[in-house]
Amino acid sequence: MSDSLTTVSPDVTAFFDDATNTVSYVVKDPEGSACAILDSVLDFDHAAGRTDTGSADQIIAHIKAQGLQTQWILESHVHADHLSAAPYLQEKLGGKIGIGAGITTVQDTFGKVFNEGTEFQRDGSQFDALFADGNSFHIGQMRADVMHTPGHTPACLTYVIGEAAFVGDTLFMPDFGTARCDFPGGSAHDLYKSIQRILALPDATRIFVGHDYKAPGRSDFAWETTVGAQKAANVHIGAGAGEDDFVTLRETRDASLPMPKLIVPSLQINMRAGHMPKADENGTVMLKLPINKL
Ligand SMILES: [Fe+2]
After folding, report:
1. How far apart are CA 211 and CA 186, in angstroms?
2. Most buried residue, 49, 148, 214, 251, by CB count within 10 Å?
3. Distance from the CA of 13 to the center of ligand 1, in angstroms?
């Protein structure tokens, strides 16, 4: 990442989803009109089984108003707390849908949990691009470097775009800490190591987090910080916290957390790159609810 292009400062517009505390981003090349969309949300009323494109439409309106060209629709990982709007955005705006190459592991795990048949491919072919650690790509003239940062899930990525790092669910804001590691394939040890790699980026690197829940005592949602601020003050891992202490803290906290409200629909849809499962013979899309499995 010594390329001079990594000093480029992308234009970043954040979209906060109150229903799921998710932050989606439009990341634009400051020298042109190319952009990427990161971690989009398809609104979902679980009780009614009804989707809505209100959140995605806000992103589309922004991109059209600014005259941007969507080159990439990126996922930091298979989200368990919201549905991805990637296919809807792709239909409206174009662009390629990308995720970590470890998606095949996630598809294998949840293909079994949901007893998916052979029509569910576990090779990542629902996505347009599968990124491995060290891969790079461009958004206009701006370079993006891929870091594999597992722990929250086995396939999580951090996208380092110019001098900004989009860390997904690894670090949250310094006063909130870090992401949970108790989903299948998660590992607090892996997350610790991944976070050390993120913190090895230059101190001035801007960090954009995937969620915010407001820490106790904070009245506003926040999503942008820096590597330096995380190193100094992250409540789980700042000031040089060691791996064993972090793992104990993380695993203790995870044991007290409820499952995300939308985990069952989110996994079934997001492991298909945001596509719905095939409809039943009557034309209705159905989701499964495995009993005593998650
Ligand atoms: Fe997540």
Report:
1. 18
2. 148
3. 20
